[in-house]
Give the backbone structure.
Amino acid sequence: MIIIRFLGFFSFAIFGPYFMLYLNQDRGLSPTIAGMIMAFSSVVGAVSQILGGVFTDRFGRRRTLLLFYGLGTLFNILLTLMVASSTSIWLFASVYIVSGLSWGMTQPALTAVITDLAPRKKLTEAFGLAQLVGNAGWIIGPLLGGYMFAHLSFTYLIGTSIITGLLSLILVLATLRESFAGNKDKAGLRGLFSVKDNALFTYLLLNMLVFIVYVQIVNSYSVFTVNRLGFTTTQYGLLLTINAIILVVFQHPVTRLVDIRLGDKNALIWGSLIFGAGYLSLSWIMSYGWSVVAIVVVTIAELLFIPSMTSIVGKLAEPEQRGRYMGLLGTGTGFGIAIGPLLGGVLLDASHGNSLFMWGPLALIACIAGLGFLRWFATYKKRLQ
């Protein structure tokens, strides 16, 4: 699971941060239109995670991963061929949007396997380890992608996803044992719609707000730094690499600190507020050095927030519900990922050079989420205990 997670992060780290730039510079789309395309793809991926959760609980983790990694590899081949042949942008965008289906279907199975295997008392630490190894892909990916984008073409960037997809499929086929064989009696769509957990759905809404802000680093921030601040794509890639190096070095000790001392509550509340502070600081940054400082602040928030976010859902769900609960978590964060680039693109177009109008509203959203988590933990304290 760790190696497969690394491959997924590495693949996206190569082409994902430059996808909006590709649509803007190579295909001539405005940031708003480019953001809409990314948003629709994320919505498909988000909604499909609900179905992925059902598949995971009904047919087992391994079967779900095999089926949809295979489908995802076929989509990657098709998208690479379409970029290489300069297919109509709207046809390409349509296939890209639909391709989010295969990615979304695999995510609940991945997180459910980790939840199945990890001791409950160390669940946050387990997800911290998974996040650490996944983020290792961001050390090389953005720099490699930035160099390839500047000197080659976007075809090579997106083509790397074919290799990583095939490797993931082979690893699942050759090495993964089934950790939960499935439960056909209780895991259908009817079982999904019978989930009536107010704690879960309120929690998902708060996570969605944080992810609207969190994902700016890999979409709107690229256009902001390159087009508005005048950085090169390689310099932008270096910022993401700095983010990844800090995550790899400090994720495990920070997550252990959360497990032993801080607790998931403080990690989520302070993570949300620090996200807001980090993005708000971009309103006054003009130099590359201060951009590095801002990235460090955002990375601290990520260290705290991401592992605890998944761990809480793992603790709320019973074994036969883990696929569906993780699918619903993926859907909630996926909607945040979908809204993020759309909102960021609109704010970029509407701010007319005033960076505070770009980053101020996003910082406010993160702070509102932090206050919401404070209330949520007070309300559901007994259940978590």
